[in-house]
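User: My instructor asked us to take a sequence, write out its structure as tokens, and then describe one feature of it. I'm not sure where to start. Here is the sequence I was given:
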Amino acid sequence: MNSIYAIVGMCGSGKSTACDILKENGWQYIRFGQITIDKLLEKGMEINPENEKKMRESLRDEQGMGVFALLCISKINNALERGNVVIDGLYSWSEYKILKEKYKDNIKIICIHTSPSTRYKRLSIRKQHSSDKEIRMRTLTENQAKNRDYSEIENIEKGGPIAMADIMIINEKSEDNLKTQILRIING
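Assistant: Let's start with the prediction itself. The structure tokens for your sequence are:
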């Protein structure tokens, strides 16, 4: 059976970069956060940190803390038929429990940990590329990033999956260093 890796960590830790490395190595890609972007676009709302926060929290208020996992299970199952799967953006403890119950030992949680000061610096200089059609890479001020951190920890149970990660990667160095660590994991 093909494997699932869910990448967890705070905003700016390197989750998307880690997922890109796995995609480059043939892994199928599922992004939970795309649900938020799609819902904002459906409603004609501007994509910005405030609207994203409102939408994430609204979806969870209306449909439960595990809504993103539940909405993505069929996508995950379809992707598993084609190969190994990487999930970008598992956030809540409820999502973690749903996926662990469904996929048992076939899902591994990889936490990308980066200090707040490093993340805030990265986020303040990060630029969205024209090729970023999924709107994954956006610049955030330190204040926006800190507010997002607090909101995600306090309102959407983000700490649980990070604490329960099967594998921890410290990402304080270069992108090449992160790539080396990811490749070491997938190549055994």
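For the description part of your assignment, you could build on this observation: The CA atoms of residues 117 and 142 lie 9 Å apart. Try explaining in your own words what that tells you about the chain.
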